[in-house]
Amino acid sequence: MTGLLDGKVALITGAAGGIGRASAQLFAEEGARLVISDIGAEGVEETAALVRDAGGEVVPVVADLGSRDDIRAMVAAAVDTWGRLDCAFNNAGITGGQIGQGGRLTAEWDEDAFDRIIDINLKGTWLCMVAELNQMMAQEAGGAILSTASLAGIQGFPTTTGYSASKHAIVGMTKTAAMEYAPKVRVNALCPGYVDTPMLTDTMSRRGELILGQIPFGRLADPREMAQMAAWALSDRASYVSGQCLAVDGAFTAG
Ligand SMILES: NC(=O)c1ccc[n+]([C@@H]2O[C@H](COP(=O)([O-])OP(=O)(O)OC[C@H]3O[C@@H](n4cnc5c(N)ncnc54)[C@H](O)[C@@H]3O)[C@@H](O)[C@H]2O)c1
């Protein structure tokens, strides 16, 4: 059987758990050779072991999205190991809750926390795109990039101001790059709804029932449901899809 990503070289950030780990497992099942990265060394090694145990080929890298050098080294690892980079999934990110801003209104956010979330989610994603675009434009086959935004990148969510700002900006950057680098590199954004990952633990403990009541599907998404969209968006099946926010949200934004 042929896989969606047969023969592709794919990079995934934020691969120590959640959506990134599910994507590493699925991309490998779909035939990709991988470089996976995260700031968390233990988690990224665990993901690599899961991929290898299932017969996949993977290079784990520890990289901090706050470091331009780490990001360059991560893309270089793909090129040094596999000769090129076909697909890049810029998925790592942090929430306000993870940096002590949970429940805060816009005027209540700490300035340092605002800077931090913009630095990791937005500037980190931009630095990834820079390194990836440079590589993909230099190679004959081009490539495809998918960056994880959020529903908070397409509509407002009270108490998420820094997160929402960073994710809206990822969408803007995605649309701009899609036009600039067309047709050689396709550039899209994934906008997950509420996904059952460690990132959501804090939010669900505070507002779980309310959130489930707002989702027409009445449940959280499984991380693998995000991975399925990511694999498709980065595959040749999506050959005319670029500059889009791909919402995977159990009909949350349908109304
Ligand atoms: N879970 C959800 O409901 C949801 C909803 C919308 C969007 N998202 C987005 O999905 C993406 C993946 O999140 P997840 O839900 O799998 O959560 P997660 O916390 O399991 O994964 C995020 C990963 O990013 C890594 N990371 C954090 N800071 C980093 C840094 N400075 N450098 C490198 N890696 C770093 C973490 O170690 C972690 O492994 C994020 O961008 C998140 O904003 C998640």
Short description:
By secondary structure, the protein is α/β, with parallel strands linked by helices. It has helices at residues 18-29, 41-53, 68-82, 111-138, 161-181, 201-214, 223-234; strands at residues 9-13, 33-38, 58-62, 87-90, 143-148, 185-192, 245-248. Strand 2, helix 2 and strand 3 (58-62) form a beta-alpha-beta unit.
Contiguous low-pLDDT stretches (5 residues minimum) are: none
Helix content: 40-55%
- Reading side by side through the largest sheet, how are the strands ordered? 3-2-1-4-5-6-7
- The N- and C-terminal alpha carbons lie at a distance of 39 Å
Overall strand count: 7
> Which structural class do you get from the secondary structure elements?
alpha/beta
Bound molecules: nicotinamide-adenine-dinucleotide
| CATH architectural name | 3-Layer(aba) Sandwich
How large, in whole angstroms, is the Cα Rg? 17 Å
Write down the CATH topology.
Answer: Rossmann fold
According to CATH, what is the class?
A: Alpha Beta
Q: How many distinct folded domains?
A: 1
Q: Indicate the overall shape.
A: globular
Report the major sheet.
7 strands, parallel
Strand content: 5-15%
The CATH superfamily appears as: NAD(P)-binding Rossmann-like Domain
Mean pLDDT: 97
Give the SSE order as H and E letters: EHEHEHEHEHEHHE
Number of helical regions: 7
